[in-house]
């Protein structure tokens, strides 16, 4: 009896009959083989020198920029990303490759004096070897880039295992990168859990972005092997609105954070906490702002909220909202594709799944807090701690009164969504494991520190 080879299928979430690709899953042995080929290529990639690595990353940036329109259209078609966001993601992808193209020239260590006597002490950072990257579908170009670019800049080789739903985007990015680097320096490994598990079992350093249960399993597996691991996982992010905030501005920011890309971002706003007298005006303004957002075809430049990634995602959101008091949305749209209207609910009981789990859809719960301290307790009451947005005119409160927030990032008078790629990215609790990503932190993660003692040779015997 022949074994059935699993098939990877990627379909357009706005039109599920539009199938981008169907390919056989390569399997675990292919994953291990990809790592071994990358490991053989790694010394040559490192020894080629800073100029070669810098030029290669710069060439990737130029090629991505030249293909920007094509790549944005592919993201629209494969993962349902609204065109305006897809264009912005491609532009960010270009900027990230350019940012890390300068990194090979950065110092990799320091020279220190000995405590006593002659000699020198050196500290130096060196690449781990093969970086195994496991990435999600919601940022099909930017997330693979902000992992791969620092890994390559530091002298590692890369094996990228994308989410099945973003396979076409990953393969296209792989074509671009491979034209700029030597053979086996950058490999795209399509697949699912089988290939991902095999990659974690073979790579020298692992970086993961995705769901919390899978990320925790990746971290455990990597830790058991004694290799560095980084996992960016879920979020259940809050927006805190104080009475002195510009309510209309806050409502606009929060609505975009709830519904942008159908809420399919780990930084999306899931809970809106109105402090004191802010509740009534915010309820009205935010409900109106959500109803005003353009929902529909992601290829339309005006669309803010496109489809969810697949039918199961839409059904999960509908189930989470069932029976709740709805202020806006709460319906699936009657059209082909996996659409749901941006939704705001209230009167949600403390144990409800919307306040414990990441639903990953365009929905948020409106909650009331008596004061700032109460708002902080509500914010910190969930298992996650990725990002909190705070809306207030009181800079003192923003800078000093919110230090007790247990989140990795705090955005003041700004949406919870949005990432500055040159700064560390990450959260606390179940949102993140291991060191931060992006910026200088990314370079440090993909290298290990060494200390060298250089003592003078004694006289010949």
Task: Please give the alpha-carbon distance between the first and last residues.
Answer: 72 Å
For the biggest β-sheet, the strand order reads: 12-13-14-11-10-16-17
Count of DSSP helices?
14
Judging from the principal axes of the Cα atoms, what is the shape?
A: globular
Helix content range of the residues, please?
A: 25-40%
Keywords:
461 residues; alpha/beta; seven-stranded mixed sheet; six-stranded mixed sheet; 20 strands; 22% strand; globular
Polypeptide structure, described:
With 461 residues, the chain is α/β, with parallel strands linked by helices. It is 38% helix and 22% strand. It has helices at 28-47, 50-66, 68-79, 83-101, 142-153, 167-178, 193-202, 212-225, 247-259, 279-292, 311-321, 372-380, 395-401, 439-445, and strands spanning 7-12, 15-24, 109-112, 120-127, 130-135, 157-162, 186-188, 205-209, 229-232, 237-241, 269-275, 325-328, 343-346, 363-369, 384-385, 387-391, 409-412, 428-429, 432-433, 447-454. The strands form five sheets. The chain has a seven-stranded mixed sheet with strand order 12-13-14-11-10-16-17. Helix 1 (28-47) packs across helix 7 and helix 5 crosses helix 14. The chain is globular, with a radius of gyration of 24 Å. The mean pLDDT is 95.
